[in-house]
Amino acid sequence: MVSRNIYLQLALRIILITLTIIASTYFFFNKQYIVGSVGILILVGQTTALINYVNQTNRKIAYFFDAIKNEDFTLRFPEKLSVKSLEELNHSLNMLNGMIQDIHLKKQAQEQYYQEILRQADIGIFTINPKGHILYANPTVQNLINYRPLNHVKQLNQVDGKLYQLFKDLKPFDNTIFQLGNERGKRELSLKCTPIQIEGEQLLLVVVHDIHKELDEKETDSWVKLIRVLTHEIMNTITPITSISESILNYFKTGNQLTSPTNFTEDEIKNTAKGLEVIKEQGNDLMSFVQSYRTFLSVPEPDRELVPAHKILAKTKILLNEQKDSFAVQIETLIEPQELELFIDQKQITQVLLNLGKNAQQSLQNQEDATIRIIAGVNEMDKKYVQVWDNGPGIPPELIDEIFVPFFTTKNTGTGIGLSLSKQIMRLHGGSLRVVSKENNTVFTLAFD
């Protein structure tokens, strides 16, 4: 409606100017110079009025956009004018100004809402541009690092030189743990980096989390689980020894008096011999249990070297084929890229893969199309990994958190330290051992840093 009225105003003015030009020309050709001169004066006035009309409209629009640019929403245009088109233009500009003001206020409220969430978050969050300037840092990260205000990564050099070097070399998708020591004690900081782009500028979003409390809780939980398993195993071994010892002692004592050798029957002598054999066996089992505990605690530091992935996977496949029982298990290997090399202790990692493979074989008994796949590759974060996959029944959800606990086992044979020992070996390699399991799909992943 506004543009239509302005269009009509301009068209009318241009038509009047054109008619004035024609009339003035006509009078000049007929030598009526006075009337022609009056026409020229009228033409000058009409042209000036047209220019002022266009400039007035342009100035209003220019003022409007300057006010919006400067976030000044107090600008108001009069809406009661003699010129209908300008009155409607002013009304439309005022309406648009009000709409933009509402959007701006909502945006500010939303920004304050998100900023408050970031300020109250238990994790530290800040963003860094390519020049090292810290564009935003919430109070949590300032408390964790014990420095404020944070404006540039160079300030971290005053906190800890190693921390500054770490942030200086941060790259997208980096994930690391740093131990920060200060007058408040030691903190285990977990740092995760994510690239983001805002208004065409590449930034690095860094999330900092103090995992010391979580580590303490997990350590306590691990000790509770370990003590529970140790107590269970030791009690299972000691209880028969105590019971049999009491039975044998009853043969040799009546009250406080020793039984005469002549009073022993043949059955009592046989039962005594059998009882002593059981005590010996239980003692040997307890010795084996203690020995396995010593093995778990004395894993040597890895003697690492570059080993072609195809070499260790082929060796593991051969060893697993020798371990297979009467049922058929198909063992496959897959390496991508083919020239992949792993910086590992070959003996220790072979032991880990063999243990995982044996567990997979045992889970595949009586399974149709039983298959084990050993896969080596590089993930999207450029980290090398080896996976052991099987299509067995899977690990029950209630046991998934228990399988790495030392001496925990659901099998009738074995010590229950295979998986915990494997995880210990991966920890010494600076990597991790994780499992994801569901029906017909169990994957153990060895991740190397």
TrEMBL record:
It catalyses: ATP + protein L-histidine = ADP + protein N-phospho-L-histidine. It comes from the Bacteria. SMART domains: HATPase_c (SM00387). It is an enzyme of class 2 (transferase). The keyword Transmembrane applies. One of its GO terms (biological process) is phosphorelay signal transduction system. One of its GO terms (molecular function) is protein histidine kinase activity. Residues 110-149 form the PAS domain. Keywords: ATP-binding, Kinase, Membrane, Nucleotide-binding, Transferase, Transmembrane, Transmembrane helix, Two-component regulatory system. The chain crosses the membrane at residues 7-28, 34-54. Residues 229-449 form the Histidine kinase domain. Its EC number is 2.7.13.3. This is histidine kinase. It comes from Costertonia aggregata.
